[in-house]
Write the structure tokens for this entry.
Amino acid sequence: MNKWVKISLSVLLVILIIFIISITILKIFSSKTKEEEKDKSAYNLTSVNVMKELDLYEEINNHEYSKTVEVLLESNNFKKEYLNYYYDIEYKNITNFSTIINRLLDKNYNSEEINYITTNISDNINIILNMDYINILAYKDITNFDISKIERYLSYQEENQNYDLATIVTYVNIGLDKEGYSEYTTYTTEEALNDLTILVNKYHKLPDDYEPNDLVALSYNSGYTYTLRREAATAYEELVSAALLDNVIIYPFSAYRSYNTQNKLYNNYVARDGVKAADTYSARPGFSEHQLGLAIDVRSNTLLDNLTEKDYEWMLSNSYEYGFIVRYPKGCQHITQFMEEPWHLRYLGVELATKVHNSGLTYDEYYDLYMK
Ligand SMILES: [Zn+2]
């Protein structure tokens, strides 16, 4: 054979061998990749093993990856019947997440409700876990909702089915589900001195020895000196002048009252009318806005201790511009816990008084909704 033919055949043979080897390697390699792909799950090894045991490998991997499913599988708390709920539950980094999720599902909460609970009330999930199912999403848009009061909301709602849920929440937060004076918080002297906006009612008390440190006398003189805290006194004089321009002539008939004065006053009323009646129109000592030095009772020119309808209307429409609100308006006795007192003005400062006026709420409600 020709030398060149031999060389050519050899080269061809080598090329052929290389070709065959390459094909074989490629085949092996590609089949390996396919095998690997079969096992390429987004889930970690532990959860893959558990899902294989449960014969759920295909089903779970055909679904979008869920951290919640993975955590449930890993923790050995996975319940097959809850799988479709797990997919829609957002994973939250909270202690005992998987146990909590199952307990909530056991109580018939759905995924949306569970997401709300673990997002918004994660610090108080025990409260939810210790009670029967409640329609938790009904409270979703109620900004002053307080989960720690849930039992009180539910029982108050039973007794007051005519109120909507937002009203139930506000009234319970105020304390109206409990008898006035039965449970109350007491301010410190510092709080009372430094904050002209504090709420004083049958659920918020002043210290017995609290006295404002900046009382000044009002210009009106009837042989008796009426005093208010300096800022309120200045505002009051402006209010009187502005009212006068509209032919509304008002005089004070009570302003700052000490704890002792209030004590005597209240006890006189009790002696005359009994506790139950007295409590509807007179505050017990320590619970009166008059002790704040920020409240004043005004009367009309023609009346001894009341306002005419016209003067009352003027106060309702204008007093906020000088920093005062009518604290016990008509028709609000069920909230303020006092009968209407058209004459009783409370100083809050122009900015806050304007907001309260515009809200149309009593100060008790406004305070709960916006001041806490
Ligand atoms: Zn008063």
